[in-house]
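Changelog note: in this version the structure field was regenerated for every chain. One regenerated record is shown below for reference.
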Amino acid sequence: MPVASQKDFLNLPFQDKLEFLYGLPARQKRDLILSAPEAERLVRSFSPETLFYTLKEIGTSDASDLLGLAIPEQIRWLFDLDCWDRDRPNLNRMAEWLEALADAGRARMAEGLMELDLELVALLLRRYLKVYRMDDPQSASDVPFNRFVQFDEHYLIEFIRHDAIQTHINEFLEEVFERDYNYF
């Protein structure tokens, strides 16, 4: 898009900006949104389906800028629309979205995942970790901490799968532990 058109876009009233964005190729739409001072408001005004198709066209590897501006409900819709094969969750696609969310920031990732159905999050977590209830908090001092994480005296978490997503899972757990112990 020529600079004059971007400048024209930036001078439009908000509602006209929204209307202008519909129908544009996804990367052009993303670039215009990110150039606007009200970028967050623009993204949050999209229907979840519009945001989903825009992000799918861009690709999850380049989606973090817009995901960082989305509300948790929009993120929930992304998972609902893309992370199912009929009635079965597709954990590989969930991992792709998780990585894109993590690139948007730890807090945004936690907000988005906490909005998902708890059973869906549990299925993803089961793929990466095993949780042990600690009967004796003193026994935790004997475990090798390169495979285990302990946030409190009640639970010991073992990572059973080691890939690029493991770090994001750990960050999610840390953030959830700090935000909402009951969810944790």
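Spot check on this record: The mean pLDDT is 90. The CA atoms of residues 129 and 159 lie 4 Å apart.
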